[in-house]
Amino acid sequence: MESRQLMKDEGYGILRKLEDNSLLELVKDKVRGDCVRMHDLIRDMALDITRTNPRFLVEAGKLLTELPEKVKCAEDVEKISLMHNYINEIPSSMASSTCTILTTLLLAHNKLSTIPESVFEHMPKLKILDLSFNGKLWSLPNSISKLVKLTTLLLESRTIKKVPSLSGLGSLKKLNLRDTKIKEVPEGLGMFKNLKCLFLCGSDRYDILEIDEIPDGVLSNFSKLQELIVNNSKIKLKGDVVGRLMKLEVFHGWFTTPNEMRIFLKCQLNRLSDYFINVGSNLNVTYGVTTMLPKYKKIMVFEETSIVGENTLFPSVQVLCIDTCQGIRSLNDFSGIKDATDLRRCSIWNCDGMECVISSWINTPIVQTLEYLGLYNLHKLDGLCEANVMAMSSPPSRAFSSLQEVFVWECKKIKQLFSSWKLVDYLQSLVSIYVDYCEEMEEIIGSDPEEGEGGDIIKKLNLPKLKNLHLKALPALKSICSKRAVMVCDFLESITITDCKGLRRIPLSLPMVDNTQLSPPPSLKKIYMYRQEEEWWESLEWDHHNAKDVLRPMVQFFP
């Protein structure tokens, strides 16, 4: 049996050949990224070819409200597509039609409310059936079990509450029950020896199914299963059962205890190419991780559980979210972090014992790969790096070299975001800094003690890619950096400073035009603040007497 990844690669190869020969064209989609579409002329030509032999009937997106007459007598049709219409019923006359060679029937995105009981009795060769997104369809006819050749059944819909026995579908390879309102798995599910893909989940982690369990013995029968999507906290998956699915390549699921996760990890350590694994039971915090799925394929979320002790982390993890997990004071205490060589995003919420992100440079490869760091409601957090770590040794040569975004929110104890100039020298990829509601934050960038006080030399803190600087509700903030330093940010686009009344200086290095006239950074568009803070703006100290006047046109007040 070919692997899912190999089949996917072959499919992409075919698409590339079609694109290279101008039969498909590349388009950009804001949500899905790169897509391809067929030009209308090519599509019309393809449909014209398939009007004879083999005969395809395609009436997709034609605003139809009822089944076309030519579909009702489709004895010689092999494939039918009526997607994206407004068809509300399948007439009983079609139930008596004999579709002896029909292999594909696509009825997704219509208004179907019922399907005649005997409609599937005369489709002996049907292989693909798509009834997804029919907003009024709540049940399926019993005759669906007579589709013995069916390999793909797609039923994604928020209205389907009843699915009859599927015991007759012995050829089924893909079953999609995403978003349905069924309360138990369909009868006969465990008999699908050929099943490769099973979707038994909600559309996101908060829209979960009403199914409480998958009966013992069902999953263990799926020896050919390659893709299992069961991101439902109600379903208590067992690590040893899922771990024995030796063909599994894609897994989205929920383990209620770290022990079940560890058992699963031992079995599937090097097999999975795509996973979204939740460990714990809480559903209250939003990470936005579902929006990351097109970009990141290896995600782990730990919520209200213990993450100390034996390894619970996949070495290949790209996105790590930790919420309300006690027992760790830094990521170095997280078992398995030393092997996480491709971690790109890390979000940490509500971990009361968290004192710093990094407590040792040793065995911490994430400092070289991390692109996003989010720190939320960590009441004991002192800083990104433990103080003695920075004092005793220099960071590795590529420490934080990939870091692009830093978000810090409601971390009450932290006084400095970056503890020294030394650390800033590594942040050459940093694009955004967001610091909000940190009561004791005094300085964004600390100075190096060995630099001494006074002197005429001004340290230039180069952040060549920084675009966004956002500081909000920092009552103790005294400075962004030392008076002996300025920030060189040639690509800075936006500055937001609100409720930071103690801040007296914005240490921005401004370029000179012809070495005589001060100029704002060429990319700077807006400096945001509240209207009532205009007096604060006027009182700010500047390194150049003309700086305030140069930047004044960029100031924009919030209502």
What this model shows, in words?
The protein is α/β, with parallel strands linked by helices and 559 residues long. It has eleven helices and 30 strands. It has a 20-stranded parallel β-sheet. The longest helix has 17 residues, at 4-20.
Summarize the structure.
By secondary structure, the protein is α/β, with parallel strands linked by helices. The chain has eleven helices and 30 strands.
Secondary structure layout plus pairing:
Elements: H1 4-20, E1 25-29, E2 33-37, H2 40-49, E3 56-58, H3 69-72, E4 79-81, H4 92-95, E5 104-106, E6 128-130, E7 152-154, E8 174-176, E9 197-199, E10 227-230, H5 239-243, E11 250-255, H6 258-268, E12 274-280, E13 298-303, E14 319-323, E15 345-349, E16 356-358, H7 366-369, E17 372-376, E18 383-385, H8 387-392, E19 405-409, E20 416-418, H9 421-424, E21 432-436, E22 443-445, E23 459-462, E24 468-472, E25 485-488, E26 494-498, E27 512-513, E28 517-518, E29 526-530, H10 534-539, H11 547-551, E30 555-558
Parallel strand pairs: 3-4, 4-5, 5-6, 6-7, 7-8, 8-9, 9-10, 10-11, 11-12, 12-13, 13-14, 14-15, 15-17, 16-18, 17-19, 19-21, 20-22, 21-24, 23-25, 24-26, 26-29, 29-30
Antiparallel strand pairs: 1-2, 27-28
Key attributes of the depicted protein:
about 550 residues; alpha/beta; two-stranded antiparallel ribbon; about 20% strand
- Class from helix and strand fractions: alpha/beta
Number of strands: 30
Major β-sheet profile: 20 strands, parallel
CA(first)-CA(last) distance: 62 Å
Strand content: 15-25%
